[in-house]
């Protein structure tokens, strides 16, 4: 089993990412609202500098977590997500990471009706 983490920079892409993942066979994910260090620091700008043009105001981002059965499925998630947000090496798209899990409990496979690997 692998954990997939993806920070989606533009929250307006989240629904399309979720639809694409589901169409690709990824049946479960958890989303949390998140913010990065840079955005957090920008919120602490002194009052006279807070008034900016609306197009320069940055929104928060969303972090997606999913547990998938194997590395190939994690790579598939990356490809699906990049199909929506673009190359994750490009600015303002997001970040992606996946790692192998040693212990997983509470995740069931829809096909088998039981615990995953």
Proportion of beta-strand residues: 15-25%
Task: Calculate the mean pLDDT score and round it.
Answer: 82
The major β-sheet equals: 4 strands, antiparallel
Low-confidence stretches: 53-57, 112-117
How many beta-strand runs? Answer: 4
The run of helices and strands is: EHEHEHE
Instruction: State the helicity in percent bands.
Output: 25-40%
**Which fold does the CATH topology refer to?**
Alpha-Beta Plaits
Number of helices: 3
Trace the largest sheet across and list its strands.
2-3-1-4
What is the CATH class designation?
Alpha Beta
Radius of gyration: 17 Å
Q: How many separate domains?
A: 1
Describe this structure in words.
This protein is an alpha+beta fold. It has a single domain (2-100), classed as Alpha-Beta Plaits (2-Layer Sandwich), CATH 3.30.70. It has three helices and four strands. It has a four-stranded antiparallel sheet with strand order 2-3-1-4, covered by helices on one side. It starts with a strand and ends in a 17-residue tail after the last strand.
Offer a few descriptive terms.
117 residues; alpha+beta; Alpha-Beta Plaits; 4-stranded antiparallel beta sheet; 3 helices; 4 strands; 26% helix; globular
């Amino acid at each position: 089993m692998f954990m997939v983490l993806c920070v989606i920079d533009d929250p307006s892409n989240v629904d399309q990412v979720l639809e694409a993942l589901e169409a690709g066979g990824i049946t479960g994910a958890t989303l949390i609202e998140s913010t990065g260090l840079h955005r957090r620091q920008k919120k602490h700008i002194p009052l006279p500098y807070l008034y900016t043009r609306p197009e320069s105001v940055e929104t928060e981002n969303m972090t997606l977590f999913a547990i998938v059965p194997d590395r190939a499925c994690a790579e598939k998630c990356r490809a699906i997500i990049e199909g929506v947000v673009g190359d994750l090496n490009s600015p303002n798209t997001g970040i992606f990471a996946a790692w192998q899990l040693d212990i997983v409990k509470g995740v069931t496979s829809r096909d088998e009706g039981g615990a995953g690997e």
